[in-house]
Amino acid sequence: MRSSAGTARTILAPVLLGIALLAVWQLVIVAFDVKPFIVPGPVAIGGEFGKNISTVLAGAAVTGWNALVGLVVGAVVGILFAVLAALVRVVDELSAAVVSAVAVVPIVALAPVLYSMFGAGAETARQLVAAIAVFIPVYINTLRGLRQVRPVHRDLLHVYAASAWQTSRTVTIPGALPFIFTGLRIASSLAVISALIAEYFGGPVGGLGKSITTAASGSNYSLAWAYVLGAIIVGLVFYSVTLGIERIATRHYKPAT
After folding, report:
1. Angstrom distances, CA of residue 131 to CA of 31, 35, 93, 153, 174
2. How do residues 3-33 score in pLDDT, each as one tens digit?
3. Which CATH number fits domain 45-252: 3.40.30.10, 1.10.10.10, 1.10.3720.10, 2.60.40.10?
């Protein structure tokens, strides 16, 4: 009963806060006669969102797919590379500078270069931009998690002649999971943002980023914000799914204490 009440408060509190903020936003728009080119009101944005729901969903499907591909590729490469770096310290030392360089690569400059490499008609550039953005937080957090194993736990399993897989299953993986999923939660939002930004700089006609620029260039600012709302929803879906997977995984793997 208490858990149900706690869950209700957890869901209800942000919903009520969001409603209150939207009401204040609309009140400010009406009271101060804020022009749409500065920022439209929630009512206007909601109206455009409802009228163009099919277009928003089509753009969300394109952006969401590119973000998903980038998230999966970047996460897999980041985790595998972190495992290798944790096992072979030389790899970690040699790759530190490379990882630092990749972390500061500007998406604004990278997207046009990738479009010229893979063609402006392919979604590959957008997916690679998302994958590169995902790789950094996943790699750094996974590597840190893999190094959190207490020596006493590892030595104890060694005394009991545990295999490498048994050590990983009972100590290393459970201890690293919170760090891995911290990286994945950060990366899930970054994947959507990166795919969205990459759409601004060329590529196929499709995706929420292209729709935002098209609507804004036509001075239809309420519609542009409706597409922004669609992007926010995609980001929330990615984050929520990642959080759900984390809770399922942590139920099966509990770190040793």
Report:
1. 44, 38, 23, 35, 25
2. 566 656 667 878 888 899 999 999 999 999 9
3. 1.10.3720.10
